[in-house]
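User: I'm writing a short report section on ligand binding and want a predicted complex to refer to. Could you take this sequence and 5-O-phosphono-beta-D-ribofuranosylamine and write out the structure as tokens? A short remark afterwards would be nice.
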Amino acid sequence: MLRIAVFVSGGGTNLQSLIDETQKGTINGEIVLVVSNRLKAYGLERARKAGILAECIKDQDVLLKRLEEEKIDLIVLAGYLAIIPDKMIELYRHRIINIHPSLIPSFCGPGFYGLHVHEHAFQRGVKVAGATVHFVSEVVDGGPIILQEAIDVSKAKSPEEMQTLVLENIEHRILPEAVRLFCDGKLKVENERVEII
Ligand code: GRF
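Assistant: Sure. The structure tokens for the complex follow:
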């Protein structure tokens, strides 16, 4: 059973989908720590309600130490808005998973997070949107892609509606699926490409 840490900064609906799946036993992993850089992040409350250790940590060295103390095997970024230092990326190479609410390489990189992603996509008039789960590398949203899924957003009347379509129909499913595949040892990275074995 792998030991998973989840980092959040906001409402934590992606965290909730992971909590639900791990507690149903559909993933060979256990969320043992939830961390936020924001004291008031509702994701911390979701963790506490599920009986999971929830800590607000702003200092990167303290965070690294806690990950070591908790013997973390996998870090999942679920709406985490602080920068992951290169030292952590190096220590946890191909063991940090992030979910981004667009079909990378569209609408990603510095400044493209949360609703901003959908504002740009809506403004551009995209007919299809989606989400991407990828390993974290030193390039923001540039790590090896694990899973992607698209959805028709041509009827969306606002960026908020687009965000909800992507969040509820795609993100909440492909993030747990990517974690499941990782915990089952089915993700192989070669030349920056992920193969599901
Ligand atoms: C999601 O849209 C996710 O793709 C992005 O941040 C948002 C987090 O939402 N990384 P929540 O906090 O999981 O509800």
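A remark for your report: The two ends are 19 Å apart (CA to CA). Residues 159-183 form the longest helix (25 residues).
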